[in-house]
Amino acid sequence: MTHPDAEFLALQAALAGEYSLQRELGRGGMGIVYLARDVQLDRDVAIKVLPSHLASTAESRERFLREARTAAGLSHPHIVPIHRVGEADGFVYFVMSYVEGETLGDRLRRDGRCRPPTRRACCARWRGRSRMRTDAGSFTAT
């Protein structure tokens, strides 16, 4: 079993009483996503946190918060709802619904390339998603 790193423990302390971090779900260029438990509502949520090396720059913080605001303004079955944006002890984060299931990366590793019918369905969904994002304003996916 791996032990939580210092950043995980610091975030857990900053969010104590509101959210209980369980584990890291993934990371990318603009964020680290954790599975957490909303203590007050007794439900699982996903918390996306701007990495500390980016949270110190105003441009990165604004880009991250713009992503949250834009996503929060959209309502679509293929877009995860944003519940809250916050800052605590130097951490910038947003809380969203947790959707259980495999990642696209997991599916591609398991099945290889998508077959044409699946690829067409995925592309159609992404085209619709891109139009909604464009109509709503600037949005940067991570």
Kindly describe this structure.
With about 140 residues, the protein is an alpha+beta fold. It has a domain at about 5-100: Phosphorylase Kinase, domain 1 (2-Layer Sandwich). About 40% of the residues lie in helices and about 25% in strands. The protein contains five helices and five strands; from the N terminus they run H-E-E-E-H-H-E-E-H-H. It has helices at about 5-15, 50-55, 60-70, 105-110, 115-135; strands at about 20-30, 30-40, 45-50, 80-90, 90-95. A hairpin with a 2-residue loop joins strand 1 (about 20-30) and strand 2.
Please outline the helices and strands.
Blueprint: H1 6-15, E1 19-28, E2 31-38, E3 43-49, H2 52-55, H3 58-72, E4 82-88, E5 91-97, H4 104-111, H5 116-136
Antiparallel strand pairs: 1-2, 2-3, 3-5, 4-5
Structural class: alpha+beta
Can you give the mean pLDDT?
Answer: 82
Order of helices and strands: HEEEHHEEHH
Main sheet overview: 5 strands, antiparallel
* CATH T-level topology of the domain at 6-100: Phosphorylase Kinase, domain 1
Kindly estimate the percentage of residues that lie in beta strands according to DSSP. Answer: 25-35%
Put simply, the count of helices is 5
Regarding CATH, which class of the domain at 6-100? Alpha Beta
Share of helix among residues?
Answer: 40-55%
Please tell me the CATH architecture of the domain at 6-100 by its name.
2-Layer Sandwich
Low-confidence stretches: 127-142
Terminal-residue CA separation:
28 Å
Q: Based on CA inertia axes, which overall geometry fits?
A: globular
- Give the name of the CATH superfamily of the domain at 6-100: Phosphorylase Kinase, domain 1
Strand order of the largest sheet: 1-2-3-5-4
**How big is the Rg?**
16 Å
Strand tally is 5
